[in-house]
Design goal:
mainly alpha, Hypothetical protein af1432, 21 helices
Protein backbone atom coordinates (compact mmCIF):
# COMPACT_ATOMS: atom_id res chain seq x y z
CA UNK A 1 0.00 0.00 0.00
CA UNK A 2 1.96 3.00 -1.29
CA UNK A 3 1.94 6.14 0.86
CA UNK A 4 2.03 9.80 -0.17
CA UNK A 5 4.26 11.82 2.15
CA UNK A 6 2.74 15.09 3.33
CA UNK A 7 4.33 18.02 5.12
CA UNK A 8 2.54 18.99 8.36
CA UNK A 9 1.40 22.62 8.53
CA UNK A 10 3.89 25.07 9.98
CA UNK A 11 3.03 27.31 12.91
CA UNK A 12 2.16 30.23 10.63
CA UNK A 13 -0.52 28.21 8.84
CA UNK A 14 -2.01 27.11 12.15
CA UNK A 15 -2.31 30.76 13.26
CA UNK A 16 -4.82 31.72 10.60
CA UNK A 17 -2.44 32.09 7.66
CA UNK A 18 -4.83 29.96 5.56
CA UNK A 19 -7.73 32.35 6.23
CA UNK A 20 -6.27 35.29 4.32
CA UNK A 21 -8.37 36.17 1.30
CA UNK A 22 -7.27 36.48 -2.32
CA UNK A 23 -7.68 40.08 -3.48
CA UNK A 24 -8.09 41.48 0.05
CA UNK A 25 -5.12 43.35 1.62
CA UNK A 26 -3.61 41.51 4.59
CA UNK A 27 -4.06 44.57 6.83
CA UNK A 28 -7.75 44.99 6.02
CA UNK A 29 -9.74 44.11 9.15
CA UNK A 30 -11.88 41.00 8.85
CA UNK A 31 -15.61 41.59 8.62
CA UNK A 32 -17.48 40.79 11.80
CA UNK A 33 -19.61 37.74 11.20
CA UNK A 34 -21.04 34.71 12.96
CA UNK A 35 -19.50 32.68 10.10
CA UNK A 36 -15.89 31.61 9.93
CA UNK A 37 -13.78 32.66 6.95
CA UNK A 38 -14.11 29.28 5.26
CA UNK A 39 -17.83 29.04 5.99
CA UNK A 40 -18.12 32.20 3.91
CA UNK A 41 -16.06 30.48 1.18
CA UNK A 42 -18.46 27.56 1.11
CA UNK A 43 -21.47 29.88 0.89
CA UNK A 44 -19.93 32.04 -1.84
CA UNK A 45 -19.26 29.05 -4.07
CA UNK A 46 -22.74 27.66 -3.43
CA UNK A 47 -24.41 30.94 -4.46
CA UNK A 48 -22.28 31.90 -7.46
CA UNK A 49 -23.78 31.63 -10.95
CA UNK A 50 -20.92 29.40 -12.15
CA UNK A 51 -22.07 26.80 -9.64
CA UNK A 52 -25.72 27.12 -10.66
CA UNK A 53 -24.69 26.56 -14.30
CA UNK A 54 -23.60 23.03 -13.42
CA UNK A 55 -27.26 21.99 -13.20
CA UNK A 56 -27.28 22.22 -17.01
CA UNK A 57 -23.96 20.46 -17.65
CA UNK A 58 -24.15 16.68 -17.87
CA UNK A 59 -21.95 14.34 -15.88
CA UNK A 60 -22.01 11.56 -18.50
CA UNK A 61 -25.30 11.88 -20.35
CA UNK A 62 -28.46 13.96 -20.07
CA UNK A 63 -31.73 12.80 -18.46
CA UNK A 64 -33.94 10.99 -20.96
CA UNK A 65 -36.59 8.30 -21.33
CA UNK A 66 -37.69 8.58 -17.73
CA UNK A 67 -34.17 8.18 -16.29
CA UNK A 68 -32.64 10.83 -14.04
CA UNK A 69 -28.84 10.84 -14.23
CA UNK A 70 -26.42 12.88 -12.16
CA UNK A 71 -25.41 16.21 -13.63
CA UNK A 72 -22.36 18.21 -12.62
CA UNK A 73 -24.32 20.05 -9.94
CA UNK A 74 -25.67 16.97 -8.17
CA UNK A 75 -22.25 15.33 -8.51
CA UNK A 76 -20.53 18.36 -6.93
CA UNK A 77 -23.00 18.42 -4.03
CA UNK A 78 -22.29 14.77 -3.28
CA UNK A 79 -18.53 15.26 -3.57
CA UNK A 80 -18.85 18.11 -1.06
CA UNK A 81 -20.83 15.93 1.35
CA UNK A 82 -18.34 13.06 1.12
CA UNK A 83 -15.29 15.34 1.39
CA UNK A 84 -16.69 17.05 4.46
CA UNK A 85 -17.67 13.77 6.13
CA UNK A 86 -14.24 12.27 5.51
CA UNK A 87 -12.62 15.32 7.13
CA UNK A 88 -14.96 15.07 10.12
CA UNK A 89 -14.32 11.30 10.35
CA UNK A 90 -10.57 11.87 10.57
CA UNK A 91 -10.99 14.62 13.15
CA UNK A 92 -13.17 12.27 15.20
CA UNK A 93 -10.33 9.71 15.08
CA UNK A 94 -7.97 12.40 16.40
CA UNK A 95 -10.27 13.11 19.33
CA UNK A 96 -10.45 9.36 20.06
CA UNK A 97 -6.66 9.11 20.04
CA UNK A 98 -6.55 6.83 16.98
CA UNK A 99 -4.59 9.47 15.04
CA UNK A 100 -1.79 11.18 16.96
CA UNK A 101 1.42 13.11 16.54
CA UNK A 102 2.12 15.17 13.41
CA UNK A 103 -0.73 13.40 11.61
CA UNK A 104 -3.17 14.71 14.21
CA UNK A 105 -1.80 18.24 13.73
CA UNK A 106 -2.31 17.92 9.98
CA UNK A 107 -5.88 16.68 10.34
CA UNK A 108 -6.80 19.35 12.87
CA UNK A 109 -5.33 22.09 10.65
CA UNK A 110 -7.99 21.41 8.01
CA UNK A 111 -11.34 23.20 8.14
CA UNK A 112 -14.28 20.97 7.04
CA UNK A 113 -15.96 24.05 5.54
CA UNK A 114 -12.85 24.76 3.47
CA UNK A 115 -12.79 21.19 2.21
CA UNK A 116 -16.48 21.45 1.35
CA UNK A 117 -15.85 24.73 -0.50
CA UNK A 118 -13.05 23.13 -2.54
CA UNK A 119 -15.28 20.15 -3.36
CA UNK A 120 -18.16 22.40 -4.44
CA UNK A 121 -15.78 24.37 -6.69
CA UNK A 122 -13.81 21.49 -8.19
CA UNK A 123 -15.93 21.18 -11.37
CA UNK A 124 -16.80 24.85 -11.99
CA UNK A 125 -14.52 24.92 -15.04
CA UNK A 126 -16.11 21.87 -16.66
CA UNK A 127 -17.22 22.95 -20.16
CA UNK A 128 -20.46 21.95 -21.90
CA UNK A 129 -20.44 18.39 -23.32
CA UNK A 130 -17.77 17.17 -20.92
CA UNK A 131 -14.38 15.83 -21.91
CA UNK A 132 -15.11 16.06 -25.65
CA UNK A 133 -15.34 19.84 -25.36
CA UNK A 134 -12.35 19.95 -23.00
CA UNK A 135 -10.17 18.25 -25.62
CA UNK A 136 -11.46 20.45 -28.45
CA UNK A 137 -11.01 23.67 -26.46
CA UNK A 138 -7.47 22.63 -25.52
CA UNK A 139 -6.57 21.98 -29.17
CA UNK A 140 -8.08 25.31 -30.25
CA UNK A 141 -6.51 27.30 -27.42
CA UNK A 142 -3.01 25.96 -28.15
CA UNK A 143 -3.05 27.66 -31.54
CA UNK A 144 -3.14 31.01 -29.72
CA UNK A 145 -1.92 30.41 -26.15
CA UNK A 146 0.58 27.79 -24.94
CA UNK A 147 -1.46 27.32 -21.75
CA UNK A 148 -4.22 25.51 -23.66
CA UNK A 149 -7.42 24.62 -21.81
CA UNK A 150 -7.85 22.38 -18.78
CA UNK A 151 -11.00 22.05 -16.67
CA UNK A 152 -9.10 22.17 -13.37
CA UNK A 153 -7.20 25.30 -14.36
CA UNK A 154 -10.49 26.82 -15.52
CA UNK A 155 -12.08 26.13 -12.11
CA UNK A 156 -9.21 27.99 -10.42
CA UNK A 157 -9.59 30.84 -12.93
CA UNK A 158 -13.30 31.14 -12.20
CA UNK A 159 -12.96 31.46 -8.43
CA UNK A 160 -9.98 33.85 -8.63
CA UNK A 161 -10.89 35.97 -11.67
CA UNK A 162 -14.12 35.35 -13.61
CA UNK A 163 -16.76 34.95 -10.90
CA UNK A 164 -17.98 38.15 -9.28
CA UNK A 165 -18.49 38.64 -5.55
CA UNK A 166 -18.45 42.44 -5.60
CA UNK A 167 -17.47 45.16 -8.06
CA UNK A 168 -13.88 45.54 -6.85
CA UNK A 169 -13.25 41.88 -6.01
CA UNK A 170 -10.99 39.33 -7.68
CA UNK A 171 -13.25 36.37 -8.24
CA UNK A 172 -14.98 35.17 -5.09
CA UNK A 173 -12.34 36.46 -2.63
CA UNK A 174 -11.82 32.95 -1.28
CA UNK A 175 -9.34 32.17 1.47
CA UNK A 176 -5.91 30.71 0.84
CA UNK A 177 -6.95 27.43 2.47
CA UNK A 178 -9.92 26.88 0.17
CA UNK A 179 -7.99 27.90 -2.95
CA UNK A 180 -5.18 25.48 -2.09
CA UNK A 181 -7.80 22.74 -1.71
CA UNK A 182 -9.05 23.36 -5.26
CA UNK A 183 -5.56 22.84 -6.72
CA UNK A 184 -5.70 19.13 -7.48
CA UNK A 185 -2.78 19.70 -9.88
CA UNK A 186 -0.76 22.52 -8.24
CA UNK A 187 1.42 23.26 -11.25
CA UNK A 188 1.32 25.02 -14.62
CA UNK A 189 1.22 23.25 -17.99
CA UNK A 190 4.47 22.21 -19.63
CA UNK A 191 4.33 21.06 -23.25
CA UNK A 192 7.26 18.77 -22.55
CA UNK A 193 7.55 17.82 -18.89
CA UNK A 194 11.20 16.86 -18.15
CA UNK A 195 10.35 15.18 -14.83
CA UNK A 196 7.34 13.74 -13.05
CA UNK A 197 6.36 11.17 -15.70
CA UNK A 198 4.82 13.82 -17.92
CA UNK A 199 2.20 14.88 -15.39
CA UNK A 200 2.43 18.53 -16.43
CA UNK A 201 1.83 17.64 -20.07
CA UNK A 202 -1.56 16.05 -19.34
CA UNK A 203 -3.09 17.92 -16.41
CA UNK A 204 -2.47 21.26 -14.77
CA UNK A 205 -4.10 23.54 -12.24
CA UNK A 206 -3.62 27.15 -13.38
CA UNK A 207 -2.86 29.31 -16.42
CA UNK A 208 0.10 31.64 -16.75
CA UNK A 209 -1.93 34.84 -16.37
CA UNK A 210 -3.38 33.46 -13.12
CA UNK A 211 0.10 32.91 -11.62
CA UNK A 212 -0.32 35.65 -9.00
CA UNK A 213 -3.43 33.96 -7.60
CA UNK A 214 -1.60 30.62 -7.67
CA UNK A 215 1.33 32.06 -5.69
CA UNK A 216 -1.11 33.46 -3.14
CA UNK A 217 -2.85 30.11 -2.74
CA UNK A 218 0.45 28.24 -2.42
CA UNK A 219 2.24 30.63 -0.06
CA UNK A 220 4.19 28.61 2.46
CA UNK A 221 4.97 25.85 -0.05
CA UNK A 222 8.28 25.60 -1.95
CA UNK A 223 8.31 27.54 -5.23
CA UNK A 224 7.34 25.64 -8.36
CA UNK A 225 10.27 24.68 -10.61
CA UNK A 226 10.13 23.20 -14.10
CA UNK A 227 13.29 21.22 -13.36
CA UNK A 228 11.95 19.57 -10.19
CA UNK A 229 9.16 17.01 -9.69
CA UNK A 230 5.65 18.52 -9.63
CA UNK A 231 4.77 20.21 -6.34
CA UNK A 232 2.98 18.35 -3.57
CA UNK A 233 -0.76 18.95 -3.42
CA UNK A 234 -2.27 20.02 -0.11
CA UNK A 235 -4.03 17.68 2.29
CA UNK A 236 -7.30 19.49 1.48
CA UNK A 237 -6.78 18.71 -2.21
CA UNK A 238 -6.19 15.03 -1.41
CA UNK A 239 -9.46 14.97 0.54
CA UNK A 240 -11.29 16.62 -2.35
CA UNK A 241 -9.74 14.31 -4.95
CA UNK A 242 -10.64 11.08 -3.14
CA UNK A 243 -14.19 12.33 -2.54
CA UNK A 244 -14.47 13.11 -6.27
CA UNK A 245 -13.17 9.69 -7.34
CA UNK A 246 -15.26 7.52 -5.06
CA UNK A 247 -18.43 9.57 -5.59
CA UNK A 248 -18.13 9.39 -9.36
CA UNK A 249 -17.40 5.65 -9.21
CA UNK A 250 -20.43 4.83 -7.08
CA UNK A 251 -23.20 7.11 -8.30
CA UNK A 252 -22.50 6.83 -12.05
CA UNK A 253 -22.34 3.03 -11.82
CA UNK A 254 -25.67 3.21 -9.99
CA UNK A 255 -27.20 5.52 -12.64
CA UNK A 256 -26.39 3.29 -15.57
CA UNK A 257 -27.26 0.01 -13.89
CA UNK A 258 -30.72 1.45 -13.24
CA UNK A 259 -30.87 2.52 -16.91
CA UNK A 260 -29.96 -0.97 -18.11
CA UNK A 261 -26.60 0.01 -19.62
CA UNK A 262 -24.21 -1.56 -17.07
CA UNK A 263 -25.02 -5.25 -16.36
CA UNK A 264 -23.99 -5.43 -12.68
CA UNK A 265 -26.13 -8.52 -12.26
CA UNK A 266 -23.84 -10.42 -14.68
CA UNK A 267 -20.51 -9.11 -13.38
CA UNK A 268 -20.43 -10.46 -9.85
CA UNK A 269 -19.75 -14.11 -10.64
CA UNK A 270 -16.26 -15.46 -11.36
CA UNK A 271 -15.75 -16.73 -14.90
CA UNK A 272 -18.98 -15.26 -16.24
CA UNK A 273 -19.32 -14.42 -19.92
CA UNK A 274 -19.96 -10.77 -19.04
CA UNK A 275 -16.72 -10.56 -17.04
CA UNK A 276 -14.84 -11.79 -20.09
CA UNK A 277 -16.62 -9.19 -22.20
CA UNK A 278 -15.71 -6.49 -19.64
CA UNK A 279 -12.08 -7.58 -19.93
CA UNK A 280 -12.18 -7.25 -23.73
CA UNK A 281 -13.76 -3.79 -23.45
CA UNK A 282 -11.00 -2.72 -21.05
CA UNK A 283 -8.32 -3.94 -23.45
CA UNK A 284 -9.93 -1.91 -26.25
CA UNK A 285 -10.07 1.19 -24.04
CA UNK A 286 -6.42 0.79 -23.05
CA UNK A 287 -5.34 0.44 -26.65
CA UNK A 288 -7.38 3.47 -27.68
CA UNK A 289 -5.95 5.79 -25.00
CA UNK A 290 -3.35 4.22 -22.74
CA UNK A 291 -2.47 7.56 -21.12
CA UNK A 292 -5.97 7.88 -19.66
CA UNK A 293 -6.10 4.26 -18.52
CA UNK A 294 -5.76 3.49 -14.79
CA UNK A 295 -2.37 2.38 -13.52
CA UNK A 296 -3.53 -1.21 -12.98
CA UNK A 297 -3.42 -4.39 -14.99
CA UNK A 298 -6.63 -5.20 -16.87
CA UNK A 299 -7.10 -8.50 -15.02
CA UNK A 300 -6.73 -6.71 -11.67
CA UNK A 301 -9.45 -4.23 -12.66
CA UNK A 302 -11.76 -7.06 -13.73
CA UNK A 303 -11.31 -8.88 -10.42
CA UNK A 304 -11.68 -5.66 -8.41
CA UNK A 305 -14.97 -4.85 -10.12
CA UNK A 306 -16.24 -8.38 -9.52
CA UNK A 307 -15.30 -8.24 -5.84
CA UNK A 308 -16.98 -4.86 -5.26
CA UNK A 309 -20.16 -5.91 -7.08
CA UNK A 310 -20.34 -9.26 -5.29
CA UNK A 311 -20.43 -7.52 -1.89
CA UNK A 312 -24.16 -6.99 -2.22
CA UNK A 313 -25.10 -10.02 -4.27
CA UNK A 314 -26.72 -8.21 -7.21
CA UNK A 315 -27.98 -11.12 -9.31
CA UNK A 316 -30.86 -9.73 -11.36
CA UNK A 317 -31.45 -6.69 -13.61
CA UNK A 318 -32.72 -3.54 -11.95
CA UNK A 319 -36.48 -3.34 -11.62
CA UNK A 320 -38.12 -0.01 -10.85
CA UNK A 321 -39.77 -1.24 -7.66
CA UNK A 322 -39.30 -0.47 -3.99
CA UNK A 323 -37.07 -3.45 -3.19
CA UNK A 324 -34.69 -2.73 -6.07
CA UNK A 325 -34.41 0.93 -5.10
CA UNK A 326 -33.73 0.04 -1.48
CA UNK A 327 -31.12 -2.53 -2.47
CA UNK A 328 -29.20 -0.06 -4.62
CA UNK A 329 -29.38 2.60 -1.92
CA UNK A 330 -27.90 0.13 0.59
CA UNK A 331 -25.24 -0.97 -1.91
CA UNK A 332 -24.15 2.60 -2.63
CA UNK A 333 -23.97 3.45 1.07
CA UNK A 334 -21.92 0.31 1.75
CA UNK A 335 -19.43 1.18 -0.99
CA UNK A 336 -18.99 4.80 0.09
CA UNK A 337 -18.34 3.73 3.69
CA UNK A 338 -15.88 1.09 2.44
CA UNK A 339 -13.91 3.65 0.44
CA UNK A 340 -13.94 6.36 3.11
CA UNK A 341 -12.39 3.92 5.57
CA UNK A 342 -9.67 3.15 3.01
CA UNK A 343 -8.29 6.71 3.47
CA UNK A 344 -5.91 7.03 6.44
CA UNK A 345 -3.06 9.18 7.77
CA UNK A 346 -0.30 8.45 10.31
CA UNK A 347 3.16 9.71 11.15
CA UNK A 348 5.64 8.53 8.53
CA UNK A 349 8.89 6.68 9.15
CA UNK A 350 10.65 9.71 7.65
CA UNK A 351 11.06 12.33 10.43
CA UNK A 352 8.78 15.36 10.19
CA UNK A 353 6.45 13.83 7.58
CA UNK A 354 2.94 12.38 7.53
CA UNK A 355 2.00 9.36 5.41
CA UNK A 356 -1.34 9.41 3.59
CA UNK A 357 -2.45 5.95 2.52
CA UNK A 358 -5.37 4.77 0.42
CA UNK A 359 -5.71 1.00 0.54
CA UNK A 360 -4.57 -0.20 -2.88
CA UNK A 361 -7.30 -2.84 -3.25
CA UNK A 362 -9.99 -0.26 -2.53
CA UNK A 363 -8.38 2.24 -4.91
CA UNK A 364 -8.33 -0.43 -7.61
CA UNK A 365 -12.04 -1.09 -7.00
CA UNK A 366 -12.82 2.61 -7.41
CA UNK A 367 -10.89 2.73 -10.69
CA UNK A 368 -12.65 -0.45 -11.87
CA UNK A 369 -16.11 0.97 -11.12
CA UNK A 370 -15.21 4.16 -12.99
CA UNK A 371 -14.10 2.07 -15.96
CA UNK A 372 -17.52 0.37 -16.04
CA UNK A 373 -18.98 3.73 -17.02
CA UNK A 374 -16.18 4.40 -19.49
CA UNK A 375 -16.46 1.15 -21.43
CA UNK A 376 -20.20 0.50 -21.24
CA UNK A 377 -21.43 4.09 -21.67
CA UNK A 378 -18.84 6.71 -22.67
CA UNK A 379 -17.18 4.52 -25.33
CA UNK A 380 -20.41 3.04 -26.61
CA UNK A 381 -20.36 3.16 -30.44
CA UNK A 382 -23.81 4.73 -30.48
CA UNK A 383 -22.43 7.89 -28.88
CA UNK A 384 -19.83 8.49 -31.59
CA UNK A 385 -22.22 10.45 -33.82
CA UNK A 386 -23.38 12.62 -30.92
CA UNK A 387 -19.80 13.31 -29.82
CA UNK A 388 -18.78 14.22 -33.37
CA UNK A 389 -21.59 16.75 -33.51
CA UNK A 390 -20.61 18.24 -30.16
CA UNK A 391 -17.02 18.59 -31.30
CA UNK A 392 -18.09 20.37 -34.48
CA UNK A 393 -20.39 22.69 -32.52
CA UNK A 394 -17.58 23.82 -30.17
CA UNK A 395 -15.20 24.37 -33.12
CA UNK A 396 -17.80 26.51 -34.92
CA UNK A 397 -18.56 28.63 -31.87
CA UNK A 398 -14.88 29.26 -31.26
CA UNK A 399 -14.28 30.32 -34.86
CA UNK A 400 -17.29 32.63 -34.99
CA UNK A 401 -16.63 34.28 -31.64
CA UNK A 402 -12.91 34.69 -32.33
CA UNK A 403 -13.78 36.48 -35.57
CA UNK A 404 -16.24 38.69 -33.67
CA UNK A 405 -13.58 39.46 -31.02
CA UNK A 406 -11.05 40.66 -33.63
CA UNK A 407 -10.32 44.43 -33.72
CA UNK A 408 -12.61 44.86 -36.74
CA UNK A 409 -14.99 42.04 -35.88
CA UNK A 410 -18.72 42.36 -35.24
CA UNK A 411 -18.66 42.54 -31.47
CA UNK A 412 -22.44 42.77 -31.37
CA UNK A 413 -22.34 38.96 -31.44
CA UNK A 414 -20.61 38.90 -28.05
CA UNK A 415 -22.27 39.08 -24.62
CA UNK A 416 -21.65 42.35 -22.71
CA UNK A 417 -19.26 40.71 -20.26
CA UNK A 418 -17.02 39.44 -23.05
CA UNK A 419 -17.02 42.83 -24.79
CA UNK A 420 -16.08 44.51 -21.52
CA UNK A 421 -13.09 42.18 -21.09
CA UNK A 422 -11.92 42.87 -24.65
CA UNK A 423 -11.44 46.55 -23.92
CA UNK A 424 -7.75 47.39 -23.94
CA UNK A 425 -6.50 44.09 -25.38
CA UNK A 426 -7.19 44.67 -29.08
CA UNK A 427 -3.60 43.97 -30.08
CA UNK A 428 -3.09 40.83 -28.00
CA UNK A 429 -4.32 37.84 -29.97
CA UNK A 430 -3.77 35.32 -27.16
CA UNK A 431 -5.79 37.46 -24.74
CA UNK A 432 -8.69 37.68 -27.22
CA UNK A 433 -8.61 33.92 -27.66
CA UNK A 434 -8.69 33.45 -23.88
CA UNK A 435 -11.80 35.64 -23.62
CA UNK A 436 -13.49 33.44 -26.23
CA UNK A 437 -12.39 30.25 -24.44
CA UNK A 438 -13.78 31.58 -21.15
CA UNK A 439 -17.05 32.46 -22.90
CA UNK A 440 -17.57 29.03 -24.47
CA UNK A 441 -16.44 27.11 -21.38
CA UNK A 442 -19.01 29.02 -19.34
CA UNK A 443 -22.00 28.03 -21.49
CA UNK A 444 -24.56 25.44 -20.57
CA UNK A 445 -25.18 22.68 -23.09
CA UNK A 446 -28.60 23.98 -24.09
CA UNK A 447 -27.31 27.55 -24.52
CA UNK A 448 -24.41 26.29 -26.67
CA UNK A 449 -26.84 24.41 -28.92
CA UNK A 450 -29.22 27.38 -29.21
CA UNK A 451 -26.40 29.84 -29.93
CA UNK A 452 -24.96 27.58 -32.60
CA UNK A 453 -28.37 27.25 -34.25
CA UNK A 454 -28.86 31.04 -34.31
CA UNK A 455 -25.35 31.86 -35.49
CA UNK A 456 -25.46 29.25 -38.24
CA UNK A 457 -28.86 30.35 -39.51
CA UNK A 458 -30.42 27.12 -38.33
CA UNK A 459 -33.63 28.72 -37.14
CA UNK A 460 -35.43 31.97 -36.51
CA UNK A 461 -36.46 33.41 -33.17
CA UNK A 462 -38.69 36.20 -31.91
CA UNK A 463 -36.81 39.42 -31.25
CA UNK A 464 -37.02 39.16 -27.48
CA UNK A 465 -35.84 35.54 -27.54
CA UNK A 466 -32.86 36.39 -29.74
CA UNK A 467 -31.97 39.35 -27.54
CA UNK A 468 -32.15 37.24 -24.40
CA UNK A 469 -29.69 34.73 -25.84
CA UNK A 470 -27.00 37.34 -26.16
CA UNK A 471 -27.76 39.37 -23.02
Amino acid sequence: MEAVLLTPPNEERRRGFAERRWGVPDDEPAAKSYRTAQQRDRDRVLYCSAFQRLAYVTQVTAPESGHTFHNRLSHSLKVAQVGRRNTERLQHLVRDGEIAGLAAQLVDSVDPDGVEAACLAHDLGHPPFGHIAETVLDDLARKHDEDGFEGNAQSFRIVTRLAVQKADSQGLDLTRGSLDGILKYPWRHLASDPVGLGKRERKWGYYGDDAEAYRFARAGWPDESDDEPPPERSFQAHLMDWADDLTYAVHDMDDFFRAGLIPLDRLGEKGSTELRRFRDLLLDAKQANWQAFPDYEVDDLVEAAREAISLHGIDEPYRHVRNSRAAMRAFGSELITRYLKAFSVADADEPGMVALRIDDQRRCEVEALKMLVTVYVVRHPGLAVVQHGQQRLIEDLFRWYLEAAAPRGDQRLLPPGAKERLEGIDGIASARARVVIDLIAGLTESSAIHLHRRLSGGGTAPTLDATALIG
